[in-house]
Amino acid sequence: MVVGYEVISMFKQESEVLRHDINILMNRLMDNVDEVASDLKPEQYKDYKTVKVNIKTQKDENEVLLKALETVRRETAD
Hints:
By secondary structure, the protein is mainly α. It contains 2 helices and no strands. The termini are far apart.
């Protein structure tokens, strides 16, 4: 039982270290994202955002169309 508590304690310590490492990496990632955004010309960043929105809109539209197609397929099969 003592060994089990020791293992749990080691697991907790390791998980805290990993959480700390994740926080450091996340902060570094966010800094890098900010640097990229500041390095880009405003027009390029605006174009990127527009393309990103258009891609999401297209994915949503495709999802709706696929559902409609599935409905028609089922109705045809019936």
